[in-house]
Amino acid sequence: MANFRLQGTRVLAVDLAGDAVKAKNGAMVAYDGEMTFKKMTGGGEGLRGLVTRRITGESMAVMEVRGHGTCYFADRATEINLVRLDGGKLFVEASNLLVTEPSLRTGTTFTGLRGASQGNGLFTTTVEGTGQAAIMSDGPAIVLRVSAQTPLVVDPGAYVAHTGGLRQQLQTAVGWRTLVGEGSGESFQLRFEGEGLVYVQPSERVTVGGQL
């Protein structure tokens, strides 16, 4: 089984003993031992994944890394966060996904206006099953718990990923004042309800909502 270890906060070390991981294409920065690299395509496996990618446009260049030794991964010095799934599902933008264990299945799901408000399109990537995944954030991410008693509101530009049984709702405050250039600056917000975890980065991407 692959062993994920953080080397600081911006490099992921994965120990391999003849097994493999799926990683963002080009994310290898160093390795020791014997490794092979095979280009794959993200967004879901098999024929269904191929069709899904064509329809949604949600895909990432992925490589399979197999071998004996330690492989080190990083991407533009972004912060790396480890997520362990025990039969659950992770929702994350393809651009924020660095490495997954091969036991995890990837796919896509419709996000509707939430994705559009983030400027990431109408679909997002899902990672499902049991194993570890490494996701990236612009700065150290905080992990905020959502419960039935404590719903959470997040800026779409700071949202990175979430797990658990969460319902999302896009809140808007767009009115006539927005149209005349007197918006609040927080015209779009994501509200999470249910039980789960939300990963939030200390940096806001440029989004449609952030311009209003």
From TrEMBL:
It comes from the Bacteria. Gene3D superfamilies: Mitochondrial biogenesis AIM24. PANTHER family: ALTERED INHERITANCE OF MITOCHONDRIA PROTEIN 24, MITOCHONDRIAL. This is AIM24 family protein. It comes from Actinacidiphila reveromycinica. The lineage of its organism: Bacteria, Bacillati, Actinomycetota, Actinomycetes, Kitasatosporales.
